[in-house]
Amino acid sequence: MTTTPRWTLVLHGGSGSMTRETLSAEADAAGRAGLHAALAAGSRILASAGTALHAVEAAIRVLEDDPAFNAGRGSVFTADGVIECDAAIMDGRDRNAGAAAGLTATRNPVSLARAVMERSPHVLLAGTGADAFSREQGLEQADPDWFATPERRRQLDEMLANPDAAFDIGMKYGTVGAVAVDAAGHVAAATSTGGLTAKKWGRIGDSPLIGAGTYADDRAAAVSCTGAGEYFIRLGVAAEIAARVRLSGRSIEDAADRAIDELGEYGGKGGVIVVAPDGSGGWAFNTPGMYRAIATHETSAEVAIYGDE
Ligand code: ASP
């Protein structure tokens, strides 16, 4: 007798101020198409009894290659007009983790994060050293032109012309994240981003920081965050959600809601996606919208952007 593998995959493509009035029809359609394609890539792996780790990496790679999202190709520009990508991945089975920050040439930052986890004794590599490790490992490299898009260039120009509105404009949605639980009940999480438009001084957000923007623990949950990274770092949001589930027995929905409430109390904006080893999955956010998607072994793909969907 064969049984159908049970699995859940949840994705985000960034939280932010998007509403039906502010988002163009093209951006709406591109975001939804990208999430559907990434869900399909991850779901295929989970449906054939692949691992959650493999599925989150595959889903993120699709979103990194998609210029509609602020990760890999289509990442935002720093104040100096370059693109610096951050990514992390974590395996809930043994809480093994890998991350990389300030990457300038790795086509798929999430795969470098996985290489750091599996092929180095470290958890987090940054800057030129991380790029060197990437080349040594034979990961695919890309020219600056591959990552750059006219829309991100326009956003940088707009921001440099309006320094007073800096943080609001800088908070461009589009960071990507994936969390999954596989047929064996193991969870994994991954996050990838270009960070904030016009970032400087080597600024790094929560996405590549294990426990802040990314966390996975088979005893509790897998979490990927998006939003104002500084708040997620200060509150250790991803690990906090896992700890609430593990220590207080809260449901993941409850723990995620509470963490986002607390983020708001501190003035932070953003969202999280979560799954638990029991197959439950969902999200919470305090921004007008969040690109998000979910699929399971028994439900078809659901994709949404606005808060009222
Ligand atoms: N959290 C990311 C960062 O702070 C940005 C985002 O999610 O939009 O780098």
Q: Can you give a write-up of this model?
A:
The chain has 309 residues and is α+β, with helices and mostly antiparallel strands. The protein has a single domain, classed as Glutamine Phosphoribosylpyrophosphate, subunit 1, domain 1, CATH 3.60.20. It is built from ten helices and twelve strands. The longest helix is centred in the first third of the chain and has 23 residues. The structure holds aspartic acid. Aspartic acid (ASP) binds next to strand 8. Aspartic acid binds next to strand 8.
Task: Produce the secondary structure layout.
Elements: E1 8-16, H1 25-47, H2 52-65, E2 85-91, E3 96-103, H3 109-119, E4 124-126, H4 127-136, H5 144-147, H6 150-161, H7 166-170, E5 176-181, E6 187-193, E7 214-217, E8 221-227, H8 229-235, H9 237-248, H10 252-265, E9 270-275, E10 281-285, E11 289-296, E12 302-306
Parallel strand pairs: 3-4
Antiparallel strand pairs: 1-5, 1-11, 2-3, 2-6, 5-6, 7-8, 8-9, 9-10, 11-12
Helix pairs in contact: 1-2, 2-3, 9-10
Bound molecules: aspartic acid.
